[in-house]
Amino acid sequence: MASNSTDSPHEHFLHRLYGFIEYYRKQISSLIAFIPAGSILEDELKIVKDFEKKMTAKRTRLEEIMGEIRAESEKYVEEFERGKRESEKRIEELREKCRLEQLEKDKAANLANENLRKRSKEIYNNIMKKGSDTDKENTARLNEALISKLDDLEVESKEENEKDSLIQRVDGGNKITAGLK
């Protein structure tokens, strides 16, 4: 297109713009011919779909695992609570058993202590009774021995006794010991 002087500057600008657009359209068309655009888009789309498929599979698997974990967790909580209740019940039973055994032991110990108290009181009373009997027997024996010793001493006459009473005694006035020497 040749430019003549009768064209307005506006028309001239539009003409040049059209030429510029045509030139770059042809350049883009030739480039598109060399680039397999459909296969690239398909490959990109395939990559995106594969990625989405893979991530969906992973998410599904994770959701399944989370569901299993949730179910196992609930099961664990139930088992834990049941085990806790059973343990508390067994502990309470054991405490009650120990308490009853201790009551039996205390009862047996009290009975044994009472029996020991009764028996030791009987033994003490027997000892005291025997002791007083023995004391009486010993006192009686001592009295008999004393009487026999006194009988063994010959008291001659009243005058000799008076005479003896005037004599100063070396033995402290014990006539029995003086007579025995």
Automatic annotation (TrEMBL):
It comes from the Eukaryota. Keywords: Coiled coil. Residues 77-111, 136-163 form a coiled coil. This is Uncharacterized protein. It comes from Caenorhabditis remanei.
